[in-house]
Design a protein that fits this description.
Helix 2 crosses helix 3. Helix 12 links the parallel strand 7 and strand 8. The longest helix is centred in the C-terminal third of the chain and has 25 residues. The two termini are 16 Å apart. The protein is built from 16 helices and 8 strands. The mean pLDDT is 86. It has a 6-stranded parallel sheet, sandwiched between helices. Helices cover 47% and strands 11% of the residues. By secondary structure, the protein is of the alpha/beta class. The radius of gyration is 23 Å and the shape is globular.
Amino acid sequence: MTVKIKPSELKALRKSKKLTVRSAAKSINRDPRTWSDYESEKRSISNIPMDNFNNFLRVHKIFWPYAKVISITAFKGGIGKSPITIAMAAAFVEKGFKVAVVTNDGVYRGYSNQEVEGVKSSGKSCALVDFYDEVDVIMYAGEKNKHEIEKGTRGPNNTVFLGDLEEVARKKSAHVEFDELKNIYDVIFLDINRDLAQTLIKSDLVALLVDAACPFAYPSTKKYCQAMRKLNDGAMDSVYMLLTNLSPVPRLRGAVHKETKSVSELYDTLLWRSEFGASNYKKLMELGVPYLNSRFSSDHEYYIERYDDSQILDQSFCYFDTVIDIAPDSLAAVEVREVASELERLLWAQA
């Protein structure tokens, strides 16, 4: 079976990775003359076999014909959605993908254009990630006409907030189309707060964050799943729960005397969190949404808090920081890369 791709499109794919005919052919163990035949302009459709084409895409980290879109999402705030999104984006850059983040996060909007551009030369792990504010992107046809005052009537007595009017103005003047971004990047991450319809419609893969140690994890996740199923005729395709804040019980014997009060209290707290996390895990399984095999321990939160404690106020963990930057040798950094690898495998399974 051959692929329905034009020779000119195959040539453009090859050149996008700065490959010669010879290097492209070598990467899939074919003769250069064979590859040249794949790109022959005498054909309307290339004669490259499906297996060879898929092998080429995998070797050179290309999702075709469009970028794959991943949403890191949650029903409740304060769960670390944005830091995990940025960490995932950075990890995908490490893998060789061209990555963008589209966000409506309020913290991101607190940065000036100059500060966002400064990330490119900051040395941070997300320096090669491109960031777009959602209000500057046309997410779907007709969106400009829809926006008008639906955002401006949320206050008492139909008060129109200045920030809402600015967002409406920016959306009306937006010229970047989301579908066009999909032609430019390999992977796009959505960091869109609570917009379930956009998350569902635009995403190839959704990672639903669940804080294993949070008493509200089950009810909030249940509400999220109910809302998503209502939007999608009962289905939850390509949605996976990603557990965070798992707290294993440490092995204290031989290291300290558990009888001392402070250590005893610490041990009891960790034991409770571990048992509560296990209880949450079982309840969440009833929602019928599969878990990712990889997950985040409480190390992720621990290293962020430790970093904040060591910094002056204006240098604390920011929107563009990741644990890969602040704790590169930590278990948290290992977990980021493991989660990213699992998400990549799931994307290839869809290709």
